[in-house]
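User: N-acetylglucosamine kinase. Structure?
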Amino acid sequence: MMMLIADSGSTKTLWCMADGGVELSRMETAGLNPYYHDAGSIDRVVTDVAAVFHAANAVGCVAFYGAGCTGGDKNEMIYSALCSHFPSAQIEVCSDMLGAARALLQRSRGVACILGTGSNSCLYDGQSIADNVPAGGYVLGDEGSGAYLGKRLVSEYIKRRMPDEVATLFERECSASVSDIIENVYRRPFPNRYLAKYAKFIAAHARSEPWLYALVYDSFTEFLRRNVCAYPGWEAIPVGFVGSVAWYFRDILRDAAAGCGVTVGDVMQNPIEGLLRYYKPKTVIRTF
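Assistant: Predicted structure:
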């Protein structure tokens, strides 16, 4: 059966067409968070997706996992757009958190975490989300995320607490003045995305600059202690991670997890490969 799987974060959506759990093609669009996008902008993106995947009428199932898909009218915005362009498909709209859990843990119990532009986590019972410590967003939470790392970096720069050698690198490679930072954070849209872009600078130098390594290590430790360690029985179950920040800082993430007594399972850049396994038809072995 032809299936379309979508993983939509705050910044981008990855669409994957598959048949029998085998990937056929994929494309990338803007993120479709219903908290930040209206019905018209969502429909325009889905129109483009349907045009690329010419076999839209042959799609039997669409599984959309998205940031901001928290139920009710938010899910309905995505659902309606998908229904209008994939009329023959069975459509499922779920949170990106459930998508991460299914990708990382399949049908086993554990803790699933997202570390990308934002961060989130859940306790997964093998079928559904059993518990979720609220992420809080980039102002009140999102510990360990790209936005959180960027916020800590530019805050230290503004307050002149950054070591001289790191400040020199920052000024040379990022070309951001204090006034630029203030403008982007307080006066322009999507400040979380703006802050998260500094994760690339941190990743480029975290292993050679101890101050940057400590910034990342401390941010991950805060995420683990304030989120993962809040779930009952976390010490005895695997903890998986998905997202660009988790992937590119995976060595430091494992160091921080070891310091907190957390058992790290899979670490994935995106959940698509895990979701392909989740939806792959099971082989039935018959005995005679």
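The chain has 13 helices and ten strands. The longest strand covers residues 22-30.
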